[in-house]
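=== Per-residue structure ===
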Amino acid sequence: MTGRAFSQRYETKVVTILFLAWGTVFLDRMSLLYLAPYMAPELHLSHQQIAQLASVLAVTWALSSLMLGAVSDHYGRRIVLIPAIFLFSGCPGCRVLPTASRTFS
């Protein structure tokens, strides 16, 4: 196998894994918008407040991308990217812990 074919296959795998990882994180962060009709009455939120929450989420996502992009350029992509993927993938699981502890006790 030539080095070029190996490199292209490796690149395809890495891009696919990153797409799935960050796509899953994005869908998790945007789940707020899909659940808003069910949460709004309980939290006494208006449509405007839900839209503001979505806007704040998008702005903070963009600002963190800019800041972490600069950190990644300074320290190297791999050093920043791998812990970030595990952190962002693990955070949704932390939301389950309080519920699970009450369920099993």
In short: The longest helix spans residues 3-43. The chain has a mean pLDDT of 81.
